[in-house]
Structures are given as C-alpha cells and as structure tokens.
Amino acid sequence: MNASLHAELRVLARIWIALLALAASTIGLALLPLGKGNAAAALVIALAKAGLVLAWFMELRERYPVLRATCVLSAAMLFILAALSAVDYLGRAPATLHDTVPAVDRPSAPFTPR
C-alpha cells in the first residue's frame, strides 16, 4: 500500500473516531441535567461534527477558495436569519388569553334560509 494512502486512511480513521466520540458525548449530554446548558452544549457538539464532515469528508479543505467562501457565506446567512427570527420572537409582547381566543357571536335564533 502506498505511504500517502496509508497516511490518508489514518487521518480518516481518526476523524471517524472523533465523530463517534462526539456522537457518544451528545448521548451522554442528554442524560445530564444541565437545564438550558444542554441545548448550548449540544449545538457546540453539532457544530464540531459538521465542521469535521465538511472539512474532511466533503473535502472543503482542499477545494477552491470560492467554494469555501460560498459555504462560509451560506452559514453566515443562515446564522443571520436565525438571529433575526429569534429577535422577532423574543421582542413580541406576551399574548394574553383575551388576545388569543376570539369572541364568537352566536345568533339567538337558528339560521333560516330565505
């Protein structure tokens, strides 16, 4: 077997083991009572897994700079849209029962067609 191929397989095996370790940490994290910290930690782990997959298995580390820039700008745009949605959701006034349940006017007599 070629030495460079052997080195590449070693790197891919290490990446695969890292992905398995991150998946196991995601499962372990679900069992810990961290409150709101669970979501933040799970997002950090998911970003790490996505970064590994993008860099090695999709080979973005070796591709054209324009392709890498497109991926970075797409991720930035997704982040901006998520942030704007969160600001919109958090900036709204809390709804009251009066605001959410419409009043229904019922006729006193049954409907009779003409």
Query: How many H/I helical runs?
Result: 4
Mean pLDDT, as a whole number? 83
Structural class: mainly alpha
The major sheet is characterized as:
none
Radius of gyration, rounded?
A: 26 Å
> Would you count the extended β strands for me?
0
- End-to-end C-alpha gap: 91 Å
What is the N-to-C order of secondary-structure elements (H for helix, E for strand)? HHHH
User: What is the 3D form?
Assistant: elongated
Protein name: Caa(3)-type oxidase subunit IV
Subcellular location: Cell membrane
Organism: Pigmentiphaga humi
InterPro entries: Caa3_sub_IV, Cyt_c_oxidase_su4_prok
Give a structural overview.
By secondary structure, the protein is mainly alpha-helical. It has two domains: about 1-60; about 60-90. It has four helices and no strands. It has helices at about 5-30, 35-55, 65-90, 95-100. InterPro entries: Caa3_sub_IV, Cyt_c_oxidase_su4_prok. Its main location: membrane. Keywords: Cell membrane, Membrane, Transmembrane, Transmembrane helix. It is a multi-pass membrane protein.
Give the gist of this structure:
By secondary structure, the protein is mainly alpha-helical. 71% of the residues lie in helices and 0% in strands. It is found in: Cell membrane.
Question: Layout of SSEs?
Answer:
Elements: H1 3-31, H2 37-57, H3 65-91, H4 97-100
Helix pairs in contact: 1-2
Name the descriptors.
Caa(3)-type oxidase subunit IV; Caa3_sub_IV; transmembrane; elongated; single chain; 2 domains; Cyt_c_oxidase_su4_prok; mainly alpha; 4 helices; 71% helix
